[in-house]
Amino acid sequence: MVYVVADGAVAPKNNFVLPFLLDGLELHGRLVRLGSAVDEIILAHDYPAPVAHLLAEALTLTAMLGSIFKYKGVLNLQIKGDGPVGLLVCDATDGGQLRGYAKFDRTCLPTFCNKKSNAAQLLGVGYLAFTVESGPEKERYQGIVELGGRTLEQCAHHYFRQSVQFEAVLKIGVSCDRDKTWRTGGIMLQCLPRKESMAPNGKIDEAWKQHRDLVQKIKPITLYQSCISPFSVLFELFNGDNIRVYEAKNLCAKCSCSKERVELVLAALPNEEIESLKVNGNIVVTCEFCNLQTIFRESDLTELRDTGRLE
Asked: What is the pLDDT of residue 134?
């Protein structure tokens, strides 16, 4: 086995995405591991286990995709269906900040509570969409496909084939300990555009099939266990390949909500609608992502009016 660790590359334990390349095979990959980041996002809400499991998978998938696209802004994953879990939304910024939430019908969930999460049952019929927002001066990119597959992994594979149109394989592992601590891990391998001079006699195609099978067979626990070095995961999985590992990107849970953003929303509403939002004289706005409540008392609204920020 021959491997090269690029300058600056270190072996982090949690909350990272680690890019790597299998030299000479045009196979490019990402290894993701989330600890406190996914735990913080999930525990902000009282999610039933199947919903939390599905959101954890979606956050891991978002982190992987966010490291592939080149953008300055936000990559958004949205999964919408007609099942008990009607909506999953996850964001990843170019700086590695993650957030996400799920909407679900609690009355329809008991059937699934004691079973392993099944995306097809929980989501039903719907669509999966990735949107890349890089600011007003850049063109917005969006890929959208119908949900296809029993698991979120299979839905992602369907997305790659139909929308992005490149060969890719991924594996995601999710764990919730007895103390309700969530951890996830994921690996994605992508077959880069081929150069004929580098692929004599179908070498790339055969290599892709072999390595795709390796990724599909990896044990999920290997992906999320922080005691296992990510370098060890790669070197044992792709034993015999020339592996080039690049600098890891740190990930964290961070919501972009703020009181100032809520003020802008209120400023765009007519006064009648603002009055209708009051409960006991106050307006309480709860962020769907981080569950943080922002309270506007009458004195706050008066100040906004006096300063011209509210009509």
From this structure: 78
Quote the CA–CA distance of 92 and 37 in Å, as a whole number.
12
pTM for the full predicted model: 0.90
Q: What's the topology of domain 259-306?
A: CBS domain Like (3.90.1280)
Q: What is the pLDDT of residues 151-160, one digit of tens each?
A: 899 999 888 8
Give CATH for domain 2-253.
3.55.30.10
What does the domain layout of the chain look like in residue ranges? 2-253, 259-306
| 213-243: pLDDT as tens digits | 999 999 999 999 989 999 999 999 998 888 9
